[in-house]
Amino acid sequence: MIDLRRRAGATLVGCTAIAMWSTLALFSTAAAGVPSFELLAIVFAFPAAAGAARALARRARGARIPLSAALIGTVALFAFHALYIFALRRAPPERASLVSSLWPLLLVLFTAALPEERLRAGHVAGAASGFAGTALLVGGGAATASVPGSISGYAAAFACAVVWAAFSVLQRRMRGVPSDAVVVYCAGTAIASLAFHLALEPTIAPSAREWAAMAALGVGPMGLAFVAWDHGTKHGDIQLLGAFAYAGPLGSTLLLVATGHAEPRWQLFAAAIAISGGGALAGWQTAAAAAERPSNATEVPEPPSS
């Protein structure tokens, strides 16, 4: 019988990743003086080192990670961040951020490819409402209509959204791969970022404040958050997570306002209504779908991990 409690618990774990991602802008602002790829190399080195230290402390060899999973995870993690950096440099940042914010909506749409999931109107409508709220957040700042956007920047932002949505859905097919694999993804991303940094950027010695911000990034939104998201997408309600993901930009904006880095605007309150309403709609759809399931439903067998 389907363990709804286990599924709900995994969904809740996935939601903690969204909460941690809401601190991304705040900590990134504190480390703004560090070149982009240098920042990524340092930040992802924290979870990689923590994972290695944990394995040594336990004197464990660690779970066996299929090479295909290690490659897919590393490429997805690095490609997402590299494309996002490129998009911000080639197009107006707020517009590029909005395009990249399509990933939760794409995630919900991509679940139609999963054999055990059924694409439902409530989840799509909830994710679309969340995107509308995010558009209000992004579009409510200074006008940039006169700034000519780069097609390559927008294309990179959209590719960024596709990469993360596709990877999140693909996680469902890699249920047999343990969440310890995230440490491997982070290590690979740190190495790739270091290579790009040495090839493209000058090296800047971070200040004590920037080191603290990068450590916070490595522990939270770029460390534990990916472990939580890995668990949530593999074992939780992935469509509900897609709709809830828009709480991240809202939480990020609220944090920036609370710390004096942004001004409160009417768009913030309208976005809160749209995003929370979308999440409630998706939650209602999930509850309705659960009620429709026959009591003798069984779990879909997990595909092999390699």
Descriptive account of the structure:
With 306 residues, this protein is mainly α. Helices cover 72% and strands 0% of the residues. It has 13 helices and no strands. α1 (4-21) packs antiparallel against α10 (208-235), α1 packs parallel to α11 (238-244) and α5 packs antiparallel against α7. The protein starts with a helix and ends in a 14-residue tail after the last helix.
Could you write a compact summary of the structure shown?
The chain is an all-alpha fold and 306 residues long.
Q: Give the % helix.
A: over 70%
Whole-number average pLDDT? 82
Structural class: mainly alpha
Q: Rg, please? A: 19 Å
Report the strand count.
0
Number of DSSP helices?
13
Instruction: Characterize the largest beta sheet: strand count, sense, and whether it forms a barrel.
Output: none
Distance from first to last alpha carbon = 26 Å
Order of helix and strand elements from N to C terminus: HHHHHHHHHHHHH
How many domains would you count in the coordinates? 1
Mass-distribution shape: globular
The residue ranges in which pLDDT falls below 50 over 5 or more consecutive positions are 141-147, 295-306
Q: Please indicate the percent range of residues in DSSP E strands (runs of 2 or more).
A: under 5%
